[in-house]
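Continued from yesterday's entry.
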Amino acid sequence: MPGTRAPARTPIPAAPQVESFDEEEYRVKPGDTFESISTQFYRTNKYAQALLLFNRNHPLAGIGVRQEPPTLQPGQPVYIPPTRILEKRYGSVIPDLAPSPAGTSSAAPPLGGPSSNAAPAAGEAAGPRRYRVPGNGEMMWTLAQRTLNNGSRWPEISRLNPGLPPELPIPAGTVVLLPADARIEPTNPP
């Protein structure tokens, strides 16, 4: 009909944004500090303050982390997120953090911490790959044989995972680092 207007549409609100990521639970050892933990997982101590703030705001944070100054007790959990989360949430306390394009990280993925299991893109430096030990555990030699096609390369895995005794099976569910050329099944969650 002439002059008839279609009814106005009610705008649909945007879907809430959910941020999903894996984090690792690290158990504090005697003498650990946020600087030493940052260096262990992120290869630099510059994430120490951001890691402290992440843990202070964590729903499972212990009382010692929430104190000023924070205290770390052996056996206490410290939660290790991907660098991109620390950079996004606490970038203002990370020294020399260069702004990065949205959704990317300006730092290397954490060593021994959550990261992608994907192979590096062309032109990108190849680093260690994350692997979750399945089943009832696995010996380093067997892991090297299966993922590197050579059991005698087990010392490389041992060097990347100094906290794991090579003479014992690696417990099921443990996330280990493997050399960049390791073949990891797509079904293996990092």
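--- second protein ---
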Amino acid sequence: MSALNLSFAIFIVVAASFIVYVIVKKIKHKYFLDALKLKLLSVKLAKKYEKSEKDDWIKEVNLSGQLASILINLKVPFSLESAVNYIGEEIFFYVAVPGDSMQFVMRQIQGLWPDAQVEEVDDYNIFNNTGFSTGVYLKQKHNVVLPIRTFEEA
């Protein structure tokens, strides 16, 4: 009788493990599909031609950090992009977020940069036959439990 109980217990553990595996796969699949349904926002910032204070760049870095923190706290997939369209020196910024978070993100950007123009746009082509494309990603060198340093600490 104990061999039968042991066999039944092993069957239950294997069945439960399989069910958990299937559920995790479905959640990851849904997360991946949600990442493909992002809406693209174009963010145009006003140019500052005057050389005011030398600490202006610190303010911009802090504002960018606040935006990243807001996007991370949404706990949804997002993308931040910067691009130079065609030929020129004007830099365009893009934020891709899920459709239900779009209005919230637009308001947050307007709150951080009051003179910014934020609008929904169709996707753009990043490839230019006379240009080039680069990409970067952030990865921690050491233990992932340790926080990422700010520009002041680095």
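The radius of gyration is 23 Å. The first strand starts at residue 38 and ends at 44. Will compare against the first tomorrow.
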